[in-house]
Structures are given as structure tokens and as C-alpha cells.
Amino acid sequence: MLFREGDGGHEAYVIEAGCVEIFTGAFETRRSIARLGADEIFGEMTLLGGHTRLASAVATEATSLIVISHEYLEERVLAADPLLRHLLRVVIARTRDNVLRLGQNTSEPGAGVSGTAHAAADRQAALQHLRLEQAMATALEQKEFQLHLQPIVRLGDSRPAGFEALIRWIRPDGSRVSPGEFIPVAEQSELIYVLGHWIIRESCRCLAELDRLVPGAAPFLSLNLSLRQFDDPDLFPVLEAALADSGLDPRRLRLEITESMIARDADATLKLLQRCKALGAKLSVDDFGTGYSSLSYLQRLPVDCLKLDRSFISDLETSPAATRIVGAVARLAHELGMETVAEGIETPGQAALCRELGVDYGQGFHWSPAVPLERAAQVLSPSQAA
User: Fold this and answer.
1) Residue 307 DSSP SS3
2) Dihedral of CA 346/351/357/362: which sign?
3) CATH classification for the domain delimited by 11-120, as one of 3.10.560.10, 3.40.50.1100, 3.30.1360.30, 2.60.120.10
4) What is the C-alpha to C-alpha distance for residues 276 and 302, in angstroms, rounded to an integer?
5) What pLDDT digit, counting tens, does each position of 130-143 carry?
6) Number of other residues whose CB lies within 10 A of the CB of residue 323
7) Domain extents for the chain?
8) Which contiguous run of DSSP H or E holds residue 326?
9) Is 28 exposed, middle or buried (0-12, 13-18, 19+ CB in 10 A)?
10) pTM of the full predicted structure?
């Protein structure tokens, strides 16, 4: 006997070999519910809610089981998306309720579904996720998203050389939704594809408009690509069409990926980046120094630029170690024929140190936050003092 109806349940099981019978009632007069064989799972409905068993289980022959503990599952559930966690708990609770209504157990229906702090938090997070996803879809239709441009300054002469395209959500009443709030929601839904297409088209449009407003400046424009976007079959057709429609030189477009994307699958990333290079665009690694333990990818991937993570820059004026790291990365990049950008520069001292250490470009509030297109054109204009 593996467990009896009414027992406390803290484990589920996967049958590796053998056979298990699930039944209700006393063993001698049992009513069989199922006979399970290899690779099937049972006992799972008690794991998330602290419930008692709804039925009994007995091995009817020599049987080998893999145990799934409550702690093992809870650890993985807590690491999952809140919406998934909430839906999982709801499905299990409703399944138990159906069994309970059939008279299999006299426990309180649905007990434990929202009785923990984790479950209550997941419910709120799930509802917020759904509301925000629906609001994003409406915002796209009503053109509430804007592309703002943050200057990337050439440290040698302190003049803007390019921009990073950053999406902003500004509601009709002027209130803003933080990208840190809506971007993760987009990446967990199909909206990331729609949003990604809009960013690509708008980036090319803005770059062409800057050419009209500031003739001869020819800045580059960096835009971020997420891991999910590489799963989009329309990504490259949209990129090609946007470049063709705007008439831009593809070399002025810099596509940014993060080190964590490379870490997921370097071989698959290489193929995707080769397709990006085939378009003529340049490639940057964002947050360099934080997401991948090996530098071997630098000799394999067709990377043009390394963007130093702001965590190094923030410590430049107080940490000799940070200074040595920034200098070493700048030298390494130049040896490999790459450029460098320091992100998060906020003080004149940080800018001066990056220049002395051989970093090519700087980006940060020391010069400007991300600004609308018209203001970006003013920043780019030769009449503006650095």
C-alpha cells in the first residue's frame, strides 16, 4: 500500500516500472478508479494545497517509483510565471472540487487554494498580468507607445554619434507605464512580436527623419532584440522591409543582444546573428561582463561592439578593480576589432575615466536621458554645444 484515502499528501510519484492501482473505499470492497503503468504520474493533487488523499494507491506487482516531493515542486512553481502558478493551483483545486462533489471525500472543497501568502500573491500578480496585457493591446491600437532616443556620445570629441531606441508607454492623461513593468509581460505573450515589429519600423522611420532634420549627421541607431523575437518567423522580413522602406544604409542599424541570450544556446545564436549580419546591420552585445562566464564566443560570433554594463561604470571613481576591468575590456575589444560603449555614465568623472581607459562611446544621464525625436534632432544638431 502506497497511501490510503484520507492520508496527508506531501508527495507525488512517477512509475518507473510496474503497476499501481488507484481505488476508493476499503481494500476488500474497493472501487477501482485506474490502473497505471510506466511513466504515468499519480498523487499530484495534494502537492500544492496541503490536502488529504482523495483515493488510495497500491502497487499490484513489483514497482519502482520516482518521488516528487512538495518541496521539489514548490521550488519550481515559485520560479515560474505568476500567471502559470495561479492557473496551476486553480486547475488542481477545481479538479479536486469535482471529485469531492462526487462524494469521494468530505474535506472542505478548494481548501488551501488561496490560503497561503504565495497563492494570494500569485492571484494578484496573475490578474495584474492579464489586465496589463489587455491594456497593452489597446495601447498599441490607440498609438500610446512612443520611441524615445538616448544619445550615444563619442568620447573623443563629446559629440553625439548615435542613439539607442527605447520604447515608452505614455497614456492619454500623460501618465507613464514603466518599461520594467510592461516589457516582461510582453515577452511572456505574443505581444512581443507585435511590439517588436513596431519598434523596428519606428526605429527606421526615426532614423530617416533625423537625416531630414539634421542633414549630414548620419547617426547610428541601436535597438534591442529579445530572445523571444528570434523565435518570430517575421523578424527578418520585417527588418528587411523597414530598411528598404526607409532607404537607410543597414550599417547604421545596430542590433543589440544580451550575453544571457548567447548563454542559452551559442550555436543557435550564431546562426541568427549571421542572418542579421547578412542584412548589413551591425551587432552589439549589451550588458557585457554580467551574463556569460566564457569569452570564447567573442571569436565565434560576428560582434561589432561591446556595451559595458553600468555596474562597472558606477564604481569607476571608487573601485580600482572596476577601473582595471573597464580598461581591460576596452583593450580586448580593440584587439578584436570591436568598439566599446559605456552605459550608465552619470558624472563628468566617469566620462573622463572612460575616455582615458580607451572606451569609444558613452551613454547616460550625464549627457541626456532618452528624449523624443524632435529633441534628439536638437541634441544632434552641430549648433548644440556638447
Assistant:
1) strand
2) positive
3) 2.60.120.10
4) 9
5) 788 888 989 999 99
6) 18
7) 11-120, 144-380
8) helix 320-335
9) exposed
10) 0.72
Percent helix, percent strand, percent coil in the chain, to nearest 5:
45, 25, 35
Place of cell 544638431: 381
Amino acid at 6: G
CA 163 – CA 380 distance, rounded (Å): 10
pLDDT digits (tens, 9 = 90+) for 205-237: 999 999 999 999 999 999 998 878 888 889 999
Nearest one of 218, 228, 225 to 276, comparing CA atoms: 225
Amino acid identity for residue 103 in this structure = G
**Separation of alpha carbons 317 and 349, rounded Å:** 7
All cell numbers assigned to 29: 470492497
Q: Does domain 144-380 have CATH number 3.20.20.450?
A: yes
What the block records as the C-alpha cell of 267 is 550555436
Closest CA to 182 of 230, 145, 147, 141: 145
DSSP annotation string for 223-257: EE--TGGGG-TTHHHHHHHHHHHHT--GGGEEEEE
Q: What is the mean pLDDT of residues 14-33?
A: 91
Cell triple for 200: 523596428
- Number of residues that this document lists for the chain: 386
CB 205 within 8 A of CB 166: no
Rounded distance between C-alpha atoms, residue 220 and residue 163, angstroms? 6
